[in-house]
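Final report, closing paragraph on structural work. Over the funding period we assembled a curated collection of sequence-structure pairs, and we close with a single example.
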Amino acid sequence: MTTVELLRRLLRRWYVVAAGLVATAAVAAAVASPAPLFVSRVDVVLVAPPDDTLAPELVSRGEDLIALAGLVERLVNEGRPREPGTAQVVPLEGTGVRRGVQVTLPNAGGQWDHSFVAPVLDVQAVGTSRAEVVALRDDVLDRVVRTLRQTQADDGVPPRRRATARVVPEDGPVVPAGGHPTRAAAAAGVVGLLLTALAGLLVDGVLVRRRARRS
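Its predicted structure, as stored:
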């Protein structure tokens, strides 16, 4: 089919093309102007007490700190199973969440061979405003600290021998979520044009064959 013939067929079904162009423009505009989304991400580092080498209780070595971090992760997440993955923690906004938090002990191993190498919890918060993200982040950080303290108290660890939490950075920045709306709009436009042309050709083919049968 030549370009001239293609254009002639699409012009015959101008109403299909017009509807497709309107729909494509609407989708591209929506993609180019997404609702605002903000994120904040900090690390919670579990720090052993100064006399950790003398402590026979829960916290005595790096491996114990990592195990404690995993326990805190499970308690804060209320027992929800962790997503299989690796040390590359998936951004929370990348999973489609628009309001929520995520606490993860990064896995340096594979999906079936977990390896946790540091007592560091990755904490993420996402929301539709900076104030909302700050509130969500501060709330989950408070839960992490309280859970850490309560877990060790329940285990009978004396206060001077308990692990503590340090937030890095202390006042984590809240930034707009990443993304490329212009590229997304361009991609939506290209796909929309292709689908519009295909729909026009399909409708034209159906109507031409129907007319041929009648004649």
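The longest helix spans residues 181-214. The CA atoms of residues 41 and 179 lie 17 Å apart. We thank the funder for supporting this effort.
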